[in-house]
Amino acid sequence: MGGAILRGCLTGGEIRPEQVYVTDPDQDKLKKLREELGISPCQDIRELTRKADLIFVGVKPGSFDQVLPEMAEWMTSDKLIVSMAAGISISYISRFLGEDIPVIRIMPNTPAMVGEGMTAVCRNVKVTEEAFSRAFHILESIGRACEVEEEQIHTVIGVSGSSPAYTYMYIDALAKAAEAGGLSREDSLLFAAQAVLGAAKMVLETGIDPEQLRINVCSPGGTTIEAVKKLQENGFEEKVMEGFRAAEEKSRQMEKQ
Fold first, then answer.
1. What is the pTM of this model?
2. What is the DSSP track for 88-133?
């Protein structure tokens, strides 16, 4: 995800590669990024924190106890930290770095890798409008972004952060059914994925409620309404909502832990 954000902000052209500092325990990865993107590699987290003014932290939640103390020495109130880890609250970060440090918490999703991400953004009171606008603009370079209250992050994880996985399951199921009907795997995936992409754009660009869009497609006595009836009989919508709630609850548990 950190790599997707990095490539997104460089693609926009407003940030030059030499202005971007990156560190990673994997030195081979750093070398490849420097060769591919022209970024400035840093020896460690301390060096990066000292040099950078807007810092994206793209590590696993379990690494924060190690990473934050290393950053604390060089963090000042004129720097901004952006965290993308599930279960790591703004208050948790502030306990390590200080209450006067501006912190933004985001919840992106993997379609950011193709410029179609959806990112929730929340902040503490120390983040200025200018700093927030700068970070928000970077996040818009990888798709869409929306500011929410931090408490809503758990809901965002269920509806957006984790939901690409549910959607892949749906696309795969459609493709497998099409294969059984005689289409090649390649064509099956093309038909299924493009249908999902098109349906999503209809929701975003027409402003019509999804339920009404479904009704519009379901001609009486036709094929679509027959499929919809079968899905409803099997509790399709309820099962999707159960999956959403499971992701949401897991996020709450992670933050408590």
1. 0.89
2. --HHHHHHHH-TTS-EEEEE--GGGGGT-EEEEEEE-TT--HHHHH
